Amino acid sequence: MGPDAARDARRAFRVEKQARAQALTEWRHIDLRPLEQAARDAHRSVGEVLPTILSQLGFDKRLTETQIQKVWLQAVDPVVAAHAQPVGLRNRTLFVTVDSNLWLSEIVRYHRHELLERLQNAIGKDQLAKISYRLG
Question: Does domain 59-135 have CATH number 3.40.190.150?
Answer without folding.
Answer: no
